Amino acid sequence: MIPEFTQVKHIGVYRFIGSVLKLKSKLNFLIPQYVRSNKPLVINFNESNKLFIQPSAQNLWTINELIFEGLSYIPEHGLLKKIMKNLPPGYTYIDVGGNLGTTLCAFYNKQATIIVFEPMPHLYACLQQTVAINNWKNVELIQKAVGKTVGEVIMHKNDNSSISQSTEVTDELIKINITYLDNFADQITRCDLIKIDVEGFEWMVLQGAKKIIDLFKPKLLIELHPQFIKHYGDNISEILDFLEDKNYLISYYNFLPELRVKSSIARLVSRYGSFKNAQLNSRAAFMDDLNILPHVTSYHIYCEPA
Asked: HSE on the CB side for 135, CA within 13 Å?
């Protein structure tokens, strides 16, 4: 049952303002009725799909960007459009780390088969409502984390994928079930694209997806989080070696150049850049970029079968 919600109105006006004045949270004075709302919000994300979101103190920034930018809120939106154009009819898309559903909305097609994994209860609940509001019949939601094997993990309650070293469940920590992608290999007849955004658990997801990768050779869109990967005892080189051994051609992107810009004016100008300017021309250039200070929080790699 869909709860009572507030539909964001005049979205076209807000998007025009956001495209001209990329001031992000400084525009909140234009939308006080939404950023201070106690009710869930429904926001037109792109031309055909809506997002359901429950406002909280932690996601006011996200609400602002969804209202003023829509699809452009995703730093890699230009790359997403490019990928979408090259997907075959009736594609199968697996979304590992569904979060609020922004990438799901970007890749949604009513002829596709779509499987979304999201372990966090509050995000999974939002995804359920997004699917219901859009009347999507071809999206399967699975409330599990994805890793190398079946198991359990303790995660921070208000975080998308931060794993605790503790084994005790508390008010701040919850127990999450883990599955692995190869567990679903016999349930699908094709797999055209896998998106992975798991904040440091990327290597474990790939280790649990060897069969699907070998069987279907899907395109892979992976958000890499260098500091989290290091925290879990893995390293980016082993991820890249694995993908190259699987005969993937890898494109590297840094969509967050403004994190290295000190001047507020220069930072504002950087928001008008093209996604093509974000591409790093080689693995060596990518590895060099990892060492530049200040460190960028995340990168994207897009992998196509050779």
From this structure: 1
Instruction: Indicate the angle between helix axes 60-69 and 11-20, nearest 10 degrees.
Output: 90
3-state percent breakdown (helix, strand, coil) of the chain, nearest 5: 40, 20, 40
**pLDDT category, 164, cuts 50, 70, 90?**
very low
CATH class, domain 74-305, is alpha beta
CA distance 104 to 114: 9
- Its sign, for the CA torsion 46, 47, 52, 57, is positive
Q: Measured between alpha carbons, how far is 230 from 142 in angstroms, rounded to an integer?
A: 27
pTM as predicted: 0.92
Helix (H/G/I), strand (E/B), else coil: 221:
strand
- DSSP, collapsed to helix, strand or coil, labels residue 14 as helix
Q: β-strands 248-253, 299-305: how paired?
A: antiparallel
Task: Count Cα neighbours of 127 within 13 Å in the Cβ-side half-sphere.
Answer: 26
Burial 181-191 (b: 16+ CB within 10 A, else e): bbbbbeeeeeb
**What tens digit of pLDDT does each residue of 53-93 get?**
999 888 888 999 999 999 988 889 999 999 999 999 999 99
Six token digits for residue 297: 């929080």
The residue ranges of every structural domain in the chain are 6-70, 74-305
Parallel, antiparallel or unpaired: strands 139-142 and 113-117: parallel
